[in-house]
Structure formats: C-alpha cells, structure tokens
Input
Amino acid sequence: MFRRAGLIALLAGAVPLAAQVSPAPARPDSAQPAVATPAGDSSAASALTRRDSSITPAADQARGVDAEIRVALYELMDDRFIPALTRLQWLSTSPTALTDAAASGALHGRQDMMFLLSQAYYRLGMDSAFRSVATPLAASSASARFGALLRSQLLLDAYRHGDYAGAIRMAGTMSGQDQGLGTLVAGLAAYQTGDVAGAQQRFAAARTAGGPYAQYAQYMEALTALRADTTQRASAVTTLEALASTATGELQDQVRLTAAQVAYEGERYDDAARLAGQVAPTSGLAAQAQLTRAWALYKGNNIAAAGQAFDEFATRYPQLPERDESRLMAGQALLQLGRTTDAANVFRTVADSATSESRDLQSRAQSSMSQAARALVQARAAGFLFVNDPANGKTIALDDAAGSERQVLAAAFGDSATSIVPAVSASEIISLDDVSRRFDALTSTNDLPRRVVFAPASATKNPQEFASRSQALYAADAAVVVAQHTLAELLASQQRQIALLQQLQTRLNSDADALGATAAKLTAARDSLAHLAVALDAAAIRLRQMFVAQINTTRMMANENRASLDSVKSLLNGAQGSPEYTILDTESQTATAYLQLADIIERGLDTALGHHPVFARRDSVNAHSQRLAALLGESQAALAGARQAVTDEITRLQSGGSDRTRTLQAALAAAESRRTAAENSVVAVVDAELRARATEMIASLKRDTEAAEFGSASASFFQAIDAGQAPTTGTTSSASIAPASGPSSGATAGTTRDSQPHQK
Output
C-alpha cells in the first residue's frame, strides 16, 4: 500500500560513510610512528632527541704556545730554518701569550722561544739580529740553561767581526765546559791583539781539553811560542814536524807548510825544501808550498831545481799574483846557469805579457769591474775576496751549525738538562782550492781578470765596509726569504681552499641537478593532483545530486502518504474504530518521521561528503603539496645562493686573493727593494776593492815589466860577452841580477821583487 523502498535506500545512505571504509592493515612495528611524548616527561624527551656531538676542548693558551715552540724546535733540528724563523717571529709579536707565568711544569715559555729565535738568526748568518736577542738572554738569570751555549756563540760572533777585545771579555765569562772551542777562539783573539802569554795559556787549555780542535790548538801554541821568542825556530820546527806526523787532512799540510816557512826563516833551506815538498800536490796549500820550496832551493844554491820549481809554479798557478815574479826568477836561474838565450826569451815573454796585461787591465778597470762586482755579489761569493791569505791557509771555517747542532738543541729542551755544553765539529782550513772552486762555479765572471780576484786585499777600508754592509745584505736576504715563505704559505693555503671550493661546487651542482629532478617530479605530481581535484569536485557534485534526488523522492512519498492518510481519515470519518485510528496515526507519524529524517540528511549531506576519506585527504594532500613546493623553492633559492657564493669566492681567490695576500705581496716587494738597495751598497764596496786591486796590480806589472826588461838587457849583455863582442849600455854583473838577499828582503837586486812565503 505504501511505498517505502526509497526511504529504506535513503536510510542506508544516511549511515556515516566513514563506517563503510574497511580498516587498513596494521603496519609492522618498525614502521609505527613515534608515540607522542608528554610535555612534562623531560627524560623521555631527552632520550628521543639525543644525538652525537663532538667535544670542544677549552682553550689553553700556554699549551698552544708550547706546541708552537716545539714545532719550531723540530723545524730547526730538521734544517728548515725559514719556517722556524717565520713561526718564531710570529710568536715573538705576542708577548701576552708568551709570558713566563703562562708556562708551568713541562710547558715552554718566552725564554725558550727567544733562545730558539736566536738560534734561527745564528744559523742564517743574521749576526746583528742574533746579538740583539742573544746578548740580553745570555745575561738573564732565567736562562741559565742556555747561558754557556749563547756565550760560546757570542764569542764566535765577536771574533768573526774583529771584536777581539769583546771576544776575550766574553771568554772570561765562560766556564770550562765549552770543550775547547771557546778557549781556542779566545786564544786566537789574544794572539791577534798581541797578548802572547794569554794566547799561550788558552791554546794550552784548548789542547788539554781535547776534541776536534786540540791539534789546531797545539799548532797555534807552537806558533805563539815562536812569536814570543823568534830565536827558538829550531825547536819550533821540531815541534811542528812531530805534530805533522799525527795530524791528518789539511791540518797536516798546514803544519808542514808552516814548518817549512819557519825553517826558511831560520836559513835551514834544505829542511825548508824537504818539508815543503811533503805537502801533497793536490792540497789546497800546494801553491804556497811550491813557492816556498822554490825559494828554499834557490837560497840553498840549487839553482837548476829552483828554476824548475819557479817555472812549475808559474805554469800551474797563473792566477796568483806571484806568477810573474816566479817567471822572472825562472829566467834569473837560467841566466845564472849560463843559458842566456833561454833567459832572454823568458824575460822578453814576461815583459811582453806584463805590458799586455797591464794595458788590458787598465781598459777593463773602467768597465768590467762593475759587472764582475755585481756578479760576485749576486752569487753571494764576494766574501771570498776578503779571505785572509788562503794560499797560506790562515782562515778556518767552522760548520754553519757549530755550537747549535741537533744534539745541542735537543739537550736544551730535555727535561733533565740543567746547562748546555756546546758541541763542536771539525774545522776546515780555507785554502786556495776552496776559493778557486767557488769562483770557477761562477759563469758570469769571465771578463774578470782572475789575478785581481786572487790578489791580496787592498790597503783600504773596503774589508771593514764589506763586513758591515754584507750583514745588512744577509738580513735583507733573510727578510725576502721569510716574506716569500709567508706569501707562499698563504698562496698554497688559497690553492687548497680553491680545490676544496671546487669540490664543493661540483657537489652543489650535483645537488642542484638532483633537486631539479625532484622539482620536476613534484610539479608533475601537483599537476596530477590538480586534475584529480577537478575529478573529485565533479564526483562530489554527482554524489550530492544523487542524494538530493533520493531525499526529494522520500519527501514526495512521505507527503503522498500523508495526503493518502488524510483522505482515508476523511472518508472514514466516524466509521472506523479505535484500532484503525491508531494505525492511521502511526502511519502519519511515520511519514512525518521520514520528512524529518530527510531534513536531517539534507542538512548533514555536505558534512558527510566532507568526512569521506577521499575528499577529506584531498585538502591535506593539497596543503602538503603547497608546503613541499614552498620548501622546494626555498631550497632551490638557498642552493643557488650557495653556488653563487662559492663561484664568487673561487673568482676572488683566483684573481688575487684577500687583503692579506695583497699586504704580503706589498711586504715582499718592500723586502726585495731593501735587498736591492743593500746589494747595490755591497756592489759599490766590491767594485771599489776590485779597482783598488787592479790599480795595485798595474803598478806591480809595471815593476815586473821593468825587471823583465832589465833581465833581457842583462841576458843580451852576457850573450855579447859569450860571442866576444863589446858590451852595450846597461851592462851589469851576474851577481847584480841575482837576488841580493833572502825572501825577507822584499825585492831582487834590480830584476824582480821577492815574494817571501809569509809565516803565520
């Protein structure tokens, strides 16, 4: 009778949609989301947020300074002086970090740093800087550990610079723990000042101390005794011969040469020739030994052997200033042997070569001396010009590390060391060969007459000027090297930065590509979501229309039922009984309920559709998509900024670097400018010295020319006598051509000068 199918269908559709969705299967435990932690549970929160973190130690300035000092020590022990000097100079500019109070226990402080700085200066030959640091440090009571070593080095420095009084004064402050080096140098200083008794005492102490300088001290002790009493030449020769039998190397040749010279001075010519002949021909002292032997043979009236020895000397050592003198003496020997023709040829050859050399030297002195002086200074070889008489071996060279060897530096920082005993190394006698090899290595001095180089130092102030100006040049060299090292370290650091930045740039580019791919995927997904949203909106409209149609049908049927009930009631007015009225009322109430239910469903329709998971999650997915798009845009912007910053930094580093780079470049340019000025100053002194020597040599060549011409005239005279002809002008006797006295006279009687072998 009544239609209820639509209402039943509507009731079924009015059930909440969420209840119709099958529940999703539970995820495994590992994929379950983290349980929310109550706000008051701090322990749980800390457990969830705990992560690894690095330990940042507290700053300890004293230990940092100690580490820097130890690194500088290792650099000095490894002969890396420039890095050590750079580090120590940087440390010295931080007095607050290097106070003695900052160091405690086994940590090193300012006194240790200043000691290492003095050793860096000492090893680099920066004597002025060394003295400025070492002098107050040696006098400080806090540096008792370094006192003995520093005083020994200051003693060497004073002697090296001709401050003999200062060397003797410094020796008076030293104890007997210097193992002979300080005592030996103090004896040499006393010897130079004429304190024979003090020199003898110190040489005897150095000999007794032993070590590598004991034999040299014994050698100097014998010479000092001879200087005190020149009548004791015989005993001096005996002592020197005994020492030569035990000495080795260059010292043995030095002792034999000196013994030969002493014997010559004592007119023991046979002994002088014998001792001089024992010097090895390959020795650096062979030239002076050859000349001494030649004079001893001549004085011993062994004219033929003397002439041969003089000729051999002139042939083997043409660079020495005694060459022409030896050639003249060879001619003199031929003349005395009656070989007048050979003698005349020798004299003419000497006269021609001396004249030619004098003329050439005069022309060169106006131009090539400056070039040669600059070449010597640029090669840092000009110091050999002022070596004291290398032909006689009068100069001793100490190792650059003398007094500051590795074991000494290590002992200076040993925990158990209370005082430092300076170690000593064997000395090296500077001989003619050492100077010759050094100048032979120079290819830019071909225009320099070598005899000027090997000539004695001029009687000017040039040696003293060179000593002072060369120190400024050494300091300028060190300043340039330090500036170059500092700049090179910075540039190397910048290159490492560039390499790291380029690696970072590659990584950022890779990340940008990956982010771009992700952005493309996200854009495609958002486009798909946009299409899905349109489809969902259409579906929502269709669903609502379907439900609205059913609601309207239900209302229509309910209204029809109510109308039918009203019609039935009117037709049965009064005829029906109580049960029929009850049924009709129930049906009327049911129709009313359907109408009310339809209203309820219509009002909740939009809410029910909104609660459906598909439509509900559409909005959250859209919101999530928008957040992802925003985050992606921010990430891309940040990545682009980082890439640009890295590119800008690489460009800046490749185009010149930072302000510090420009500052260091300016400092290097200033240091090079100061070095150029110091170099020019030294060049001026060397040029003046070379010109002074050239002037003296020209005068000597003129005298040799005159002597050769006189010898040639004498040879012509004797040739005329031998031929039975009348003598021409300029005649003389054979006795007047021969040397009138021994080597100490200084000149021959009209033919040549005598170059006596000088004794130490």
